[in-house]
Amino acid sequence: MTANRRFSSVTRIGPVQVGTSYGDRGRTQHTAACTAPRCGFSADYASRSAAELAASTHRCPVR
Prior knowledge:
InterPro entries: SpdB (IPR007806). This protein is an alpha+beta fold. The chain contains 1 helix and 4 strands; from the N terminus they run ββββα.
């Protein structure tokens, strides 16, 4: 099932967007998602710094 979340404080690091939302049970989650075509990278993190680190080190696969 896909989650429809409302994101706040969205920033962009290269092709990756990092946003903050409320996840399960009202806990704050930080998501990093790549917006490049055919990449598909997306991950949830407990801290904003971890999501920003993942965004800054992400490299899209060569196709």
